Amino acid sequence: xxxxxxxxxxxxxxxxxxxxxxxxxxxxxxxxxxxxxxxxxxxxxxxxxxxxxxxxxxxxxxxxxxxxxxxxxxxxxxxxxxxxxxxxxxxxxxxxxxxxxxxxxxxxxxxxxxxxxxxxxxxxxxxxxxxxxxxxxxxxxxxxxxxxxxxxxxxxxxxxxxxxxxxxxxxxxxxxxxxxxxxxxxxxxxxxxxxxxxxxxxxxxxxxxxxxxxxxxxxxxxxxxxxxxxxxxxxxxxxxxxxxxxxxxxxxxxxxxxxxxxxxxxxxxxxxxxxxxxxxxxxxxxxxxxxxxxxxxxxxxxxxxxxxxxxxxxxxxxxxxxxxxxxxxxxxxxxxxxxxxxxxxxxxxxxxxxxxxxxxxxxxxxxxxxxxxxxxxxxxxxxxxxxxxxxxxxxxxxxxxxxxxxxxxxxxxxxxxxxxxxxxxxxxxxxxxxxxxxxxxxxxxxxxxxxxxxxxxxxxxxxxxxxxxxxxxxxxxxxxxxxxxxxxxxxxxxxxxxxxxxxxxxxxxxxxxxxxxxxxxxxxxxxxxxxxxxxxxxxxxxxxxxxxxxxxxxxxxxxxxxxxxxxxxxxxxxxxxxxxxxxxxxxxxxxxxxxxxxxxxxxxxxxxxxxxxxxxxxxxxxxxxxxxxxxxxxxxxxxxxxxxxxxxxxxxxxxxxxxxxxxxxxxxxxxxxxxxxxxxxxxxxxxxxxxxxxxxxxxxxxxxxxxxxxxxxxxxxxxxxxxxxxxxxxxxxxxxxxxxxxxxxxxxxxxxxxxxxxxxxxxxxxxxxxxxxxxxxxxxxxxxxxxxxxxxxxxxxxxxxxxxxxxxxxxxxxxxxxxxxxxxxxxxxxxxxxxxxxxxxxxxxxxxxxxxxxxxxxxxxxxxxxxxxxxxxxxxxxxxxxxxxxxxxxxxxxxxxxxxxxxxxxxxxxxxxxxxxxxxxxxxxxxxxxxxxxxxxxxxxxxx
Length: 944
Description:
This protein is of the alpha/beta class.
């Protein structure tokens, strides 16, 4: 009967028997699984959950006991309140859990143990927990502690034991029930295995019969189909029957014919698609559901470094960062991102990996498509390396710009801070030093020796404090890169002489011999005069400080070639030099200070030139100072593009040497010499003060020369006194009011420079104009020491007449109208110091205590000179200068700036005209100040 059935009928019958067999096996399996599941559910609900409930109860009971104990240990009201609340909450939770537990199935033995636990727990709560909680609420810790000892501990034991016994019993029952379920599972498994074996045998027999009936005809179909699949579209297909296999053969022939047609169309489309893929700039990758790459265009090959045949068929995780790959299946988190479609128009970024292992930023867009019933992800990629580099460069540029702005802001704020601190620290010291000098010089009356001594101590302490402040501020400016040079022609010989004079008094107090050895022809150097003077003074001051009584200090200067710069002499036991910034200057000025002091030990050389450091802490107590001097010297020298060395032998002294480049200064020096060839400085205070006879003191050891000067002065209406040496001249000057002193430089037993320096240091004599008349006319030296003019012998009456006219000593006996000086400063004490310096000079002093007041007074009075501070609130000194320059009536009034502000190059440019001189308020002396006042006035008269 089966043979007469068609293939379809045979298959139906076969599948029917197989289905019946499988259904029977499945039914038996489902029944057994259902029984096993019910058993497991019973074990879980009645045993596992109950066991968990017992554990929770045990934990909550223990927590209650701990809460009571914690309340006794940490007996703060808040802590007790928290613990009591916790105890009540736990009790309620225990009751709830216990009711749930009792509702489950319990064995008789469990029921007995549960009832006993119920009684023990109620007794524990009633006799222990509740009384203890009540005692804690009443803050009766003693009572609570007694309850813990007498009730809680004894009653807790049966409760704890009961709950543990219940737990052990639950574990035992659970184990028995689980073993029963396991046995059931074994029975079901055996039944399923036996049924499967029977069904498998039946299916094999049915299959064998079916193969015999239909396999042979199908072999032809398979062969033809394989030929088509292999691309053989030329084989001949014959149809030999009309049954299903014949129909199948017919359908296969139709498929074959259609396939030939479709393949031709596909090949044409594929060629077009390949052309597009090969010529786009973006990398295009097709990834299937398994993460396998199926398409990899040339642009992708260029991006990742793989050839298409190397990567197609492999997992897409090779293209993403290795750290994100799943070690179990070779996929990657980023591969999952590649397979996740992106929003149209929006791309994402990940880290790609090239064939050589390098990482790079990768931008991609993913689209999901369906192809031949399969899901494909088309990924369009782009290498962002160049783009990221451009972004990084742009961001770096922006950060640099922002950092520059921040640095400029910080630098400006720091500069403003230094300027403000300089003013705020120096202003009170200016008053202390200024008034001390006024008192010491007797400008407001005589002092006793004791008072003069006290004033001297105050003055010396103030000057020392000022020196410390200046050192600290200078170092701060140097470290901030704000220290700038104001280069000008500097007469080095004069600067060194003046620097040596500044330490003479301190050296004399210790009987230290000072020597000056200056080579001929040094002339001028291009440098910052104030800073070079600070270098030399600090070196001399250190040398005097560390030299014992009776020692020697020598200051030397000479011109040296470039090859000798920074070289140690080797004449000392040890030394230290520093690298220096090379330059193209061929000649240098070498300045050295040698002393016979305590010297420097070899191990201390490295500590030299270190800020706030002295080579021995005991020296810091013995020798006052901040330890900044050498540091500032080194920085100022290096700022001039020079260098410094030190050589020493312990106990024998030391030698500090600095080298400064000798910049070309010919043109500047020529102009300076021309300007100083006819110098004029002070007008005569005595001439203004006395309307009667005027006296001049002629200091000259040559009688004939003195007589010639007497005759010339007599013609001009000036009577004379004659002194042949410095001592006699000094005595006469102290006894007789003078309108003028003429001074020869070469005097017996002394030199005229010393006499000039001496009288300029005495307030009562400092105002007298001094005209040097000598064979050798050293203009720069004379003017720097306070001379009003320098004339070279022989002189004519016209020369003397013009000189006296320039300095305000007119031939006419009629005095001139008193000159007006406007003193401007917001600090009244500073104004009074300036006024005291100008007292008894014949000038009319007008005071102004701010910028507004100064401008108004200048417009109204048109003074002959303005003494101006720069650091004032609201309208500062710069504003005053600008306002005066903008007014035609005040534009030519000479201005003398006296300030504690650090002057920058920009400040000097702003004050270039009509400011005649900028003086440091903190180191102002009367003699020097009066000389500058008269110089400014006379210079202004020449300009008009």
